[in-house]
Design goal:
The chain has 381 residues and is α/β, with parallel strands linked by helices. It is 39% helix and 14% strand. The chain binds pyridoxal-5'-phosphate.
Length: 381
């Protein structure tokens, strides 16, 4: 089965991990700091804090908001559940907003409608690797005194009009799960503009302690103070070494992703039963995934039949995502129900993610396109 995404590990990665495994610091050592410096270089953000998952990164970022019970954070429903869960971890209430069907990213007009006196922040998701429409969202946030967090799990290396991650908001979170652009096995990071935020997140990932083990060694003291509530969200030095090595190949891998995506778009643009994500000239899309929307009125069957037909041709197409507001947990928590977000619900039942990853061959791509054409023709209304 051709998967929808796949990591790429080479001999350089293995050597980098080997060096750390044979050394003194498997975790809380100097390689984590070196990885953070590499992330600063790649993102252009002043600070980067590495954590042991993208979910921990979101948790650390939302913790900075000091939410009280009932405080609201606007999030898209078309995202991975972790985006909304981070708000609930911090006693907040996620308020789900619509995406624009063309870009599949947060719709600024709908965000504006959902602001109340309890709103504290807006989380945007750069869906599939396309930078969301941040300028109007930051303008709304400034007007109401809200913070903006970018869930950039899909978007390492994405830019819009030359501006990279973390250039328009205070905080951007990343995931280094193997299916994302680079991997540290499990892992994540937050980039920040202020050292106050970065320092607080460094404590957050280490039980809320005011110093780490190497700082105590340097100062020749055993004493530690717990100054806030934190977690063990530390990335290992082994993961960080892998991350540094993987980051060296980011540009090459992004080029390959962009080449494959351009080939998909050229081949699929002419198919009447499909819509593609709208990408403008200024967008440097990171293409974490390649989503397409089916036009169900042109088909005799629903999305799941098309998905099964692709899989029976060994094409591991997938769906990103089921709307979060319709997950059983959120229906129970918030009383949300079908019909609450009609645009998102319509998009979500038409979405298919096609395979896309750097090691995918031109031949794989041709196979996917041919199978999709054949299946859509067969089921045409
Ligand atoms: C992958 C992902 C996450 C979570 O990252 P993990 O590293 O798996 O915890 C959060 N948000 C989005 C949009 C993601 O795609």
């Amino acid at each position: 089965m051709l998967p929808y995404g796949r990591h790429a590990i080479d001999d350089d990665d293995l050597r980098a991990v080997d060096v750390v495994l044979r050394g003194d610091w498997l975790t809380t050592g100097p390689t984590v700091e070196a990885f953070e410096r590499s992330l600063v270089d790649v993102t252009g953000a002043p600070f980067a804090v590495a954590l042991n998952s993208g979910t921990a990164a979101l948790h650390a970022a939302v913790d900075l908001l000091d939410l009280g019970p009932g405080d609201e954070v606007i999030v898209p429903s078309l995202t991975f559940v972790a985006t909304a869960n981070a708000v609930v971890y911090c006693q907040g209430r996620p308020v789900f907003a619509e995406v624009s069907p063309a870009t599949m990213t947060l719709d600024p007009a709908d965000v504006r409608r959902r602001i109340t006196s309890r709103t504290r922040a807006i989380v945007v998701v750069h869906f599939a690797g396309l930078v969301a429409d941040l300028a109007p969202i930051v303008a709304i946030a400034d007007q109401h005194g809200l913070r903006v967090i970018e869930d950039a799990a899909h978007a390492l290396g994405a830019r819009r009009d030359g501006a990279g991650m973390a250039s328009r908001s205070d905080l951007a979170t990343f995931s280094f799960h193997p299916v994302k652009h680079i991997t540290t096995l499990e892992g994540g990071a937050v980039t920040a503009r202020s050292s106050t935020d970065a320092d607080r997140m460094r404590r957050f990932r280490n039980h809320g302690l005011s110093s780490d083990v190497r700082a105590r060694e340097r100062e020749r003291t055993w004493r530690y103070d717990m100054v806030q509530l934190g977690f063990n969200y530390r990335l290992s030095d082994v993961g960080a070494a892998l991350g540094i090595s993987q980051l060296r190949k980011l540009d090459e891998n992004l080029r390959r992703r962009r080449t494959l995506a351009a080939a998909y778009r050229a081949a699929l643009a002419g198919i009447g039963g499909l819509e593609l994500q709208t990408v403008d000239r200024g967008d440097e899309h990171a293409w974490h995934i390649f989503p397409v929307l089916l036009k169900l009125d042109r088909l005799r069957v629903d999305r799941d039949v098309i998905l099964r037909a692709l899989r029976s041709e060994n094409i591991g197409a997938n769906v990103h995502y089921a709307p979060v507001h319709l997950q059983p947990y959120y229906r129970e928590l918030l009383g949300s129900a079908p019909g609450d977000l009609p645009v998102t619900e319509d998009v979500a039942q038409r979405l298919i993610t096609l395979p896309l990853f750097p090691a995918m061959t031109d031949r794989d791509l041709k196979d996917v396109i041919a199978a999709l054409r054949r299946i859509l023709d067969w089921y045409a209304a």
